[in-house]
């Protein structure tokens, strides 16, 4: 059995070229059929190597090829939907697509 907390420690990596996408932040489950439908992965893009913004990528469960000890391998299949996360001054969160 695998727990969500153990999945969150694994890196998400493209199987084709070994590029690290990010880390798992959440999963989406279809409760009607009791199956995982998507992985939500936080990525960080850096500007000038220092500053960065966090985005979340939604990866369909069908793209997950293997869950290993340290990584989760996924297939590249076009662009995944991304959501930009912005922190407001009062520490609340704004999601933008």
Automatic annotation (TrEMBL):
Instruction: Give every PRC-barrel domain span.
Output: 3-76
Q: What SUPFAM superfamilies does the annotation carry?
A: PRC-barrel domain (SSF50346)
Annotated coiled-coil segments of the chain = none
Instruction: Please report a single Pfam family linked to this protein.
Output: PRC
Read off the InterPro entries from this record: PRC-brl_dom, PRC_barrel-like_sf, Spore_YlmC/YmxH
- Provide the protein name: PRC-barrel domain-containing protein
